[in-house]
């Protein structure tokens, strides 16, 4: 019996099997690495928005849908903070285009600062930024729609182009558009920038 064979014989079975752990670990790491490194994931995006805008109240798409269905509750002003090009493709019913603070304040007009406001964009970054600015102007009942229009559309909730119901949304750009289901893309996205 060779020295190698006798050593193998005296090693417990579990230890002999452990010699393959580096191989399995390497294989798992390689498979996990198949994901595109820059491909965005919803959990990461939502965490990034919450971290960047800690003072902004986040409202889920489910909560907004329930709020809109509640006829007893005063309805929020919906502010779409995307570009006119994005808004023209589709938006939430009754939403007002307000891509910046000036247009948001103009849309709110004489509304009291206690007015409930829900801002949204593609994924929640631009709308959280506007929600933060509105809060700084005294509108303390302002929310960001977490996941914004992309999550709303992915859940097959209603989208509108003026008063006509539509099924697609502007994907913003190639990088951020991965968060919108492919069949919901309305057109070719522009080059990647921030959402």
UniProtKB/TrEMBL annotation:
It holds the Pfam family Rhodanese. It comes from the Bacteria. GO terms for molecular function: nucleotidyltransferase activity. Keywords: Nucleotidyltransferase, Transferase. Residues 72-161 form the Rhodanese domain. PROSITE patterns: RHODANESE_3 (PS50206). InterPro entries: GlpE_sulfurtransferase (IPR050229), Rhodanese-like_dom (IPR001763), Rhodanese-like_dom_sf (IPR036873). This is Putative adenylyltransferase/sulfurtransferase MoeZ.
């Amino acid at each position: 019996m060779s020295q190698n064979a006798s050593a193998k014989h005296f090693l417990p079975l579990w230890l002999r099997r452990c010699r393959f752990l580096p191989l399995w670990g390497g294989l798992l790491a390689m498979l996990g690495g198949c994901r595109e490194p820059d491909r965005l994931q919803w959990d990461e995006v939502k965490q990034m928005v919450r971290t960047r805008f800690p003072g902004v109240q986040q409202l889920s798409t489910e909560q907004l849908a329930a709020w809109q269905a509640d006829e007893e509750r005063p309805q929020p002003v919906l502010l779409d903070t995307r570009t006119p090009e994005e808004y023209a493709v589709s938006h939430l019913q009754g939403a007002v285009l307000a891509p910046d603070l000036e247009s948001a304040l103009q849309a709110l007009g004489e509304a009291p600062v206690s007015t409930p406001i829900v801002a949204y964009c593609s994924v929640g970054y631009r709308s959280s930024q506007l929600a933060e600015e509105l809060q700084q102007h005294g509108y303390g009942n302002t929310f960001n729609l977490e996941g914004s229009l992309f999550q709303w559309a992915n859940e097959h909730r209603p989208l509108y182009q003026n008063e006509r119901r539509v099924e697609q949304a502007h994907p913003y750009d190639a990088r951020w558009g991965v968060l919108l289901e492919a069949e919901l893309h309305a057109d070719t996205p522009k080059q990647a920038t921030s959402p």
